[in-house]
Amino acid sequence: MNPSFCRMRKSLKIAIDSSPNNDKEKDRLSNLPEDIVCQILSHVDTSIACRTSALSKDWNRRSVWTMLPDLSFHYWFPLYSPDYYRGFNEFVNKALDSRKGKHIRRFHLHFSSEGRSFRPSDFQKWISGAIECAAEEINIELNRDPCFHQIELPLTVFSSATLTTLKLYGHISIFATNSPVWLPKLKILDLSTHPCQGCGMEAERLVNSFLSNCPVLQEFYLNGEWNMMSIVRAPYTLKKLNVHVDSFVNDSFEIDAPSLEFFCLQQSSPVRYVIMNLNNVVAARLSILFEFISDRSCLFDLFQGLSNVKYLMKKSQKIAIDSSPNNDKEEDRLSNLPEDILCQILSHVDTSIACRTSALSKDWNRRSVWTMLPDLSFHYWSPLYSLDYYTGFNKFVNKALDSRKGKHIRRFHLHFSSDRSFWPSDFQKWISGAIECAAEEINIELNKDSCFRHIELPLTVFSSATLTTLKLHGHISIFVTNSPVWLPKLKILDLSTHPCQGCGTEAERLVNSFLSNCPVLQEFYLNGEWNMMSIVRAPHTLKKLSVHVDSFVNDSFEIDAPSLEFFCLQQSSPVRYVIMNLNNVVAARLSILFEFISDRSCLFDLFQGLSNVKYLYLNIQYRELHRLPVINKNKSPNLETFIIQLAINM
């Protein structure tokens, strides 16, 4: 099976004409417009684009690869080879010569060789060639070369009239020259490298020369061995500043950026920050990675300068602060947290973990904070059935539910992943206990248990006045009872399971009983062995319907959902769909996974019922493509996005 993926917008017509006139296929590659061909080939390395010319005689004749506005060269060789390097050098020169007098949009050069990678004179020639072709973006990535320490960028880089993006990564030693910097169109500058060794304060002059002589600069990244920096004065146009310097030689670091909106800082040693103008910063990301600090005022100055931010992310190691003797006895901050915050934190973990977490605080242990949690989650896993282990688990669940009697439970989650997992009587007791505590959400995940086949849900589940979400996953056999269903607050129902074996059409009655007696139901998921279903009648409140049934016993499947907005269907065998009311569906996701079909009208009826959708995703595993229906823009006037994924057996 060879998967093929296609992504198209606005409309897509699938039709295969198998007449003999189409046996000789046209050279579609040669007929593509030149701008589309260049757009496609610009996404790969230029050497690959050159070899791709063999796909089309016309491409080869016209040397299409020489027309690409984006040039990308990646040199990788574990050991230095003169022949390999000579061929690479000739190819880069040829590509640049072919673009003389033409425009280069992007020039990317990446060296990842461990030995002697290139000659500095060649490097300067390549960069100068890109500048001569009015390159808009230059991206250089170099590894450390043991044969030389300083690589001087061509002077033309500092005075390019077209450069909008300059990115220098890796072990490039920028040589600080006295040449004036003037880059009138530069918007993004990334110096993820290090300056010339021994240039000292000249490095700071070089950085601030970039900042003051790039009148439209918007983003600046400083990353590497720029530890001699002491001040960054940004222009009014700068919106984003990223500083990643492990340590500074000076005791202070001054930042003046009046129009900055995003600030990112990563530092491994303390320094005093002098914040001049960061009042407009909206978001900041700080990584404080040093472990000891003698004077914490440096951090106070930093946070005080960022007092107007809306979004702040702080990543730090444990910082030991050398403070006065009065702080030797640290305050028990955990005990002083408000109770609602404690419960919110502990609700994100399993209840057994929340119970053991009480050891973190004497006050938590004294008050039994874990018994106050509104969310209860229990996960039972044991590779072999152990009576002692199960007895302890059973007692713990019962104790947790007893502690919540007369109180409210927001969520009750029960997950079993053991072979011999539980006794049905215990299961019913746990669910009934959650319902008695006015649980809003019940989520049950069970594996297949060989000791019994049918698990009957407590009758109280079908008449809960507080339940808003009911999710049943795994090998739960829902026993169909004659008890009336009335769930006035249920909004989400997920039956990712299968009904009781042998219940036949009673399963359909149960599903439609849920749908008709849940007056505010909004989402319904049907997944599993519900193959005896023949009709789904949804209430007017239902907005989302997902059906994942491998095969149906009946020949037809009727869907009536007048207010549905999202429809998801996955099916492995053909069936005729009777679409009553799906006129309001905005988005649909269909997975048609059967390979043969004798009557394609079943698919026509399905697509015809979804004629008003705006977004359609279609996943097809189908052998007979000529039987697929035609999706016509005229019959689907609202269609804006159509994504199709084909997995075809050749």
From TrEMBL:
Top-level taxon of the source organism: Eukaryota
Record-annotated F-box domain positions: 331-384
Pfam families linked to this entry: F-box (PF00646), LRR_At5g56370 (PF24758)
UniProt-recorded name of the protein: F-box domain-containing protein
